[in-house]
Amino acid sequence: MLGIVRQKMLERSSKKIRPAVSMLRSYSSAAKQMTVREALNSALHEEMSADSKVFLIGEEVGEYQGAYKITKGLLDKYGPDRVLDTPITEAGFTGIAVGAAYYGLKPVVEFMTFNFSMQAIDHIINSAAKSNYMSAGKISVPIVFRGPNGAAAGVGAQHSQCYAAWYAACPGLKVLTPYNSEDARGLLKAAIRDPDPVVFLENELLYGESFPTSDEVLDSSFCLPIGKAKIERKGKHVTIAAYSKMVGYSLQAAEILEKDGIDAEVINLRSIRPLDRSTINDSVRKTNRLVTVEEAFPQHGVGAEICACVVEESFAYLDAPVERIAGADVPMPYAANLERMALPQVGDIVRAAKRACYRSVP
Amino acid sequence: MPTLLSAWFNSHQPNLHPPSFYSLSLFRSSHPPPSPNPTLAMALSRFASSSRSGSLLKPLSSAISLRRPISTDTTPITLETSVPFTAHQCEAPSRTVQTSANELLTFFRDMALMRRMEIAADSLYKAKLIRGFCHLYDGQEAVAVGMEAALTKKDCIITAYRDHCTFMARGGTLLEVFAELMGRQAGCSRGKGGSMHFYKKDSNFYGGHGIVGAQVPLGCGLAFAQKYSKDEAVTFALYGDGAANQGQLFEALNISALWDLPAILVCENNHYGMGTAEWRAAKSPAYYKRGDYAPGLKVDGMDVLAVKQACTFAKEHALKNGPIILEMDTYRYHGHSMSDPGSTYRTRDEITGVRQERDPIERIRKLILSHDLATEKELKDIEKEVRKEVDDAIAQAKENPVPESSELFTNVYAKGLGVESFGADRKEVRATLP
Q1: Which of B58, B192, B371, B408 has its CA 20 to 30 A from that of B23?
Q2: What is the pTM of this model?
């Protein structure tokens, strides 16, 4: 499915490719294909190279080359003093990493999946997020917690939860959700450079996805601002706000909606905390209709927060109730058919957008 | 119910015998050697006191720092700790310690100041000037003072919520303490932390933590960072007998031992985790042995010289060999916190017994007097001075203003990125985070 999107994006960019002379003039139009995995790996390489205080810590990040190969090659390049394999003790090694951040180092903690971060959540919230406030600015915590978040494929209930809403609820944390390779590079570099604790939620199924990345993105100084969403696709009739893998699904939904004459604007949130409320509201004030999409459990989720914020700021602009697409309100089942039902599909997003546009849904 | 005092020296045996209160005599400090020549001793003491009274007559500055030299006499005095150290997986250090009049008087003053401070905090809490939680350290002063004497400010200390005295030992001031407890601007955390969140980063004191046990992995992380930065310094991570059973402690100890981190885990065993006596919480209350592969030392935590000796030993050990556990056998006179009378789970006799037989300040007072390092009046004068310092600091703190309303929104982030934050009614109160 995503392959279709990729092909379409390539077709669009190839249409723009004119003779070689004009290509040389536009610095950022040349696009190299890069997987999200390569993007994350290159970002880690560059940030470790730039700042000797940055170190990696987590299970299998070193000799195993990373459980998902995100940290491949880093042990060889930076040595065992800076790439640390830990025992399977999240509470212990997360606490150690936060303590190192208190002292002034810049740890990048890998959770093999964010499901395991629950074992260390006290350190993320109470030891990291709140320290700068409780100490009136004396103890800042320049740490990044990263790893795959949300559903993979067939891994069952204990390995499929999305933690965006949980972490984004806590003041003192920054929560980022990259979608494509540009996001992965820019946001990870920003996270590592940021002096505050950042929860960096990746997606396992996106690691292997390739996206075109411009020279600007590939430059080692490239960095994206934290707290700013990106309009992936401009539109006029309905706003679809999503993060991580659901951005891809939303773009596909937008293609389908276009055939029915609905021009959808797709927002890639990129940052769940701080949430880019102004981009979302500006978009809704333009389109007057909103669909939020997330993979996570629906109750008290990111969509609920977006809906509340739009109702508070832009109520008069809404022409329809806010539609919310989320994961099913059940623990993730294993059977493939049930798993499919437990996660949003492109069709769900299309249907919700049509509802928001008061179109009858066949 | 066995008293914890007999439990102390019975801890080697699995079965706890019923208490014998009078076996406390084992804890009395060893008698000092008789003075060789009474005339000489008198002459020496007169010399010492005249140099001291000179400094005592100097006007007291309003600065409320902890370390004001009383006696300048640094001639080494050799003493023995109250009891020998018990070791696990290592050679115990000698119980013979070197000290001096200067050091002993400094210890006395520092501990007396801490004692006075904690008792004053008790009154302030009852007067409702201190709110929320207030965990007092009186009885345990020797641990804070002895440890500080063995360390430099390059070494890190991290502790739990019973942190007022540890903060003072690291160079904090009385005003910062009382202002923080009363939620005022001059507090060490500008009134935003409270009793459990004192920090002093410039002295490498990292708090002040409310979650039991969390400070131990954090402390091992500090040690990691010290090793990473090649600082040749160590971290002392303090925790109580209640926290000693926390899983994350063993996780952090495991990693520290694997990576040879210069971490010293210090169990301040005051024998009660809130209201639960150690024998009800720990299958093995021999906390100094609980590190298994990590060496440990059991120390009389009411003897400031023993604490100093043990910490010096531990620092040297950790720099070479990785983590070590120190178990400080100590006692708190107050309950767990101000909402705990401290008498539902232990007898008043036990508390008075410890006060009579093991009080750390009394021990030093007896040492000073028996070695003619100061007169009883001089020591009483120090206590009066210290009381005045505390009263002055409280008066100053009471005058100090509460934080500005805008402080609600400061320090949420180190780098706020100009994002918006909200008050209870977001249509009423919004702020841009700096």
Answers
A1: B371
A2: 0.88
Q: Report pLDDT digits (tens) over B25-44.
A: 333 444 444 444 444 444 44
Helix/strand/coil for A323: strand
CA end-to-end span of chain A: 22
Contact B277, B271 (CB under 8 A): yes
CB A163 within 8 A of CB A129: no
Q: Using only the alpha carbons of chain B, give its radius of gyration.
A: 22
Q: What does the alpha-carbon distance between residue B430 and residue A320 come to, in Å, rounded to a whole number?
A: 28
Q: How many helices (H) and strands (E) does chain B have?
A: 13, 12
Q: How confident is the model at residue B178 (pLDDT cuts 50, 70, 90)?
A: very high
B193: chain A residues, CB-CB within 8 Å: 134-136
Yes or no: say if B310 and B297 are a contact pair by the CB < 8 Å rule.
yes
Mutate to test the interface with B, among A81, A102, A193, A223 (most CBs of B within 10 A): A102
| Amino acid, res. A268 | N
- A254 close to A235: Cβ distance less than 8 angstroms: yes
Peptide bond before residue B32 is cis, with ω within 30 degrees of 0 = no
Please state, in angstroms and rounded to a whole number, the distance separating the CA atoms of residues A319 and A325.
18
Token pair for residue B75?
């001639």
Q: DSSP state, A127? A: I
Closest CA to B70 of B104, B41, B25: B104
- Say if CB A294 and CB A325 are below 8 A apart: yes
Amino acid identity, residue A15? K
Outline where DSSP puts E strands in chain A.
Answer: 31-35, 54-58, 83-85, 106-110, 144-148, 174-176, 198-202, 210-214, 230-233, 238-242, 264-268, 271-273, 290-293, 323-325
